[in-house]
Amino acid sequence: MNFPAELKYTKDHEWVRVEGDEAIIGITDFAQRELGDIVFVDINTIGEEVAANEVFGTVEAVKTVSDLFMPVTATVLEVNEGIDASPELVNTDPYGEGWIIRVKLSNPADVDTLLSADGYQAEINA
């Protein structure tokens, strides 16, 4: 499994890539493997501020639907249009083309409370 060191992680299996006062959020390689073939991603929070640990959408795999949790308080700016047409990108490239949302961070320092790659690997016993 892949755990890019430049990202931050949550215990709920989301990753965060900070870009100034914005961030890109997706699910980890571990999460997509656990879910299996992803067939649909539903995000209905565009334009809304979502508090840390609150649900910002769902990801649907062949046999399950899983909530997506906001890693830090942020406003949802954009959903990755590429995953509308090709939700399998979340499986094949979870840290690249399979990103899920772009957000504006309410407090960029909150990202410092998230797990490092090493911390996340320890959390999932990888």
Task: Describe, in short, the structure shown.
Pfam families: GCV_H. This protein is α+β, with helices and mostly antiparallel strands and 126 residues long.
Structural overview:
Helix content is 17%, strand content 35%. By secondary structure, the chain is α+β, with helices and mostly antiparallel strands. The strands form 2 sheets. Strands 1-2-3-9-8-5 form a 6-stranded antiparallel beta sheet. It has a 3-stranded antiparallel beta sheet with strand order 4-6-7. The radius of gyration is 13 Å and the shape is globular. InterPro entries: Biotin_lipoyl, GCV_H, GCV_H/Fam206, GCV_H_sub, Single_hybrid_motif. Keywords: Lipoyl.
SSE arrangement:
Layout: E1 8-9, E2 14-19, E3 22-27, H1 29-35, E4 38-42, E5 49-50, E6 55-61, E7 65-69, E8 74-79, H2 82-85, H3 89-92, E9 101-105, H4 117-123
Antiparallel strand pairs: 1-2, 2-3, 3-9, 4-6, 5-8, 6-7, 8-9
Family: Belongs to the GcvH family.
Protein name: Glycine cleavage system H protein
Modified residues (N6-lipoyllysine): 63
Q: What oligomeric arrangement do these chains adopt?
A: single chain
**Helix-and-strand structural type:** alpha+beta
End-to-end distance: 8 Å
Gyration radius over CA: 13 Å
Organism: Sphingobacterium micropteri
Modified residues (N6-lipoyllysine): 63
Domain Lipoyl-binding: 22-104
Subunit structure: The glycine cleavage system is composed of four proteins: P, T, L and H.
